[in-house]
């Protein structure tokens, strides 16, 4: 970690200039690994409850294949952060990373059931309405605080302080976007930096999570998508942040103001795939992308064109990251695989060792297109919608891992997608016919 830097002019060639150059490189490319790459990272994208349910299916299959229990890190944003922090449940029994591969015990009780309960609730509307109540008039981040409170009620153990979550398993990195500098802010638990974990970013600095900062707060900050949710605010003067590198020519009053009122919005604004914290030092990277699918669209109004332009910027940033990852896979720099809502579900294996080459083991392409149009929201999802998204995530994760990273598979496990009641494409098409619609007051 870099030492705290004073403000003021910096001349080329001096040590501070070199440190700032290194910090900028870290911002764009991730920190340089101190040694050889090691371990496997799983990245869980944003995308609201839709993404969370898709990731549930993917992690279920990774657990059956013995991959989940051998992860070094889970990096997540927004909807992905919901699943990642359910996987931080101290009741889960993780296998010894140096022992024989085995599934994580307690997945159904600690991850799947709480997620279905959470995604069956409309947490968006009550959170937004909290701003118009008298108690929220003088609290700019009232709605994100309300969201955190709801999360803590539905998943009670999330009311625990981030710094005190003593457990086994991989490091959990939950990212938000720090608005002042426009960089990724991380909430890392004690598995990352002993003994209490770490929060912060490379511009403002890092510190141990303070007492009272709950797991629910970290998840809510990562899910605070504008303009629906205002940023979560922290007073950085109480955090003892160290190691930050501000702009060389920055007026100290500017950075002091940013520190006084740290604003944290949805982690997907900066990096919706959650890959930046892990892409430089892990040997393998798996990416589960449940975010919105970018589609062609004719020119519209001035406002529509502006919103479209902003969407292009975000989509282009995400596409660039994916292309970098896939180029690294092809060049042998990294192992890994990526899959998304629009992935097809065909797998190709050696005949006699599983399914026939090209056998379809999930939903057909035309139905996958309909699944892509399911709403991205924190509104309630019906059980049928939950089951379809989970089944789809299970199938595409299996297909992509088996095809692109079979060396990561540690256990031979039959392909048994969950929820056979939603296996029939005709039935699924009927069940999803209204699932793309957003409702102002929600479904429940």
Tell me what the structure shows.
Keywords: Hydrolase, Lipid degradation, Lipid metabolism. Residues 18-33 have a biased composition (Low complexity). The active site is at 78 (nucleophile), 266 (proton acceptor). The chain is α/β, with parallel strands linked by helices and 444 residues long. Helices cover 36% and strands 13% of the residues. It has helices spanning 15-29, 48-64, 79-86, 107-119, 124-129, 142-154, 215-222, 252-260, 268-271, 302-331, 365-372, 383-404, 425-431, and strands at 40-44, 73-77, 171-178, 183-188, 198-201, 205-207, 232-234, 242-243, 262-265, 284-289, 335-340, 346-347, 359-360. The strands form 2 sheets. Strands 1, 2, 3, 4, 5, 6, 7, 8, 9, 10 and 11 form an 11-stranded mixed β-sheet that branches. The longest helix has 30 residues, at 302-331. The chain is globular and about 60 Å long.
């Amino acid at each position: 970690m870099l030492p705290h830097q004073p403000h003021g002019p910096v001349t080329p060639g001096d040590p501070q200039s070199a440190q700032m150059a290194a910090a900028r490189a870290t911002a764009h490319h991730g920190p340089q690994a101190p040694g050889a790459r090691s371990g496997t990272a799983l990245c869980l994208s944003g995308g609201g409850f839709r993404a969370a349910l898709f990731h549930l299916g993917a992690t279920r299959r990774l657990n059956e294949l013995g991959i989940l229990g051998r992860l070094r890190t889970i990096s997540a944003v927004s909807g992905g952060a919901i699943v990642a922090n359910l996987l931080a449940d101290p009741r889960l029994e993780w296998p010894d990373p140096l022992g024989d591969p085995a599934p994580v015990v307690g997945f159904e009780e600690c991850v799947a059931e709480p997620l279905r309960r959470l995604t069956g609730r409309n947490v968006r509307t009550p959170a937004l309405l909290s701003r118009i109540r008298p108690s929220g008039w003088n609290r700019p981040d009232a709605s994100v605080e309300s969201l955190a409170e709801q999360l803590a009620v539905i998943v009670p153990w999330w009311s625990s302080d981030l710094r005190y979550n003593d457990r086994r398993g991989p490091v959990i990195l939950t990212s938000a976007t720090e608005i002042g500098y426009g960089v990724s802010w991380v909430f890392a638990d004690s598995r990352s930096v002993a003994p209490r974990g770490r929060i912060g970013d490379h511009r403002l600095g890092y510190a141990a999570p303070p007492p009272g900062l709950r797991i629910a707060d970290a998840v809510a900050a990562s899910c605070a998508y504008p303009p629906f949710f205002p940023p979560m605010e922290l007073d950085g003067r109480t955090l003892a942040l160290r190691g930050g590198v501000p702009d060389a020519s920055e007026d100290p009053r500017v950075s002091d103001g940013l520190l006084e009122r740290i604003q944290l919005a949805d982690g997907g604004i900066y990096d919706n795939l959650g890959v930046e914290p892990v892409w430089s030092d892990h040997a393998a990277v798996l990416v589960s992308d449940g975010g919105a699918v970018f589609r062609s669209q004719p020119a519209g109004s001035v406002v529509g064109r502006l919103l479209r332009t902003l969407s292009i910027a975000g989509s282009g940033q995400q596409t660039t990251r994916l292309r970098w990852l896939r180029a690294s896979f092809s060049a042998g720099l990294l192992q890994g695989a990526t899959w998304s809502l629009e992935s097809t579900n065909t797998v190709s294996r050696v005949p006699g060792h599983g399914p026939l080459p090209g056998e379809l083991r999930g939903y057909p392409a035309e139905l996958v297109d309909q699944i892509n149009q399911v709403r991205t929201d924190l509104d309630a999802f019906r059980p049928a919608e939950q089951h379809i998204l989970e089944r789809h995530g299970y199938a595409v994760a299996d297909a992509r891992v088996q095809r692109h990273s079979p060396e990561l598979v540690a256990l031979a496990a039959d392909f048994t997608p969950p929820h056979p009641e939603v296996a029939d494409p005709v039935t699924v098409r009927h069940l999803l016919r209204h699932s793309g619609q957003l409702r102002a007051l929600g479904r429940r």
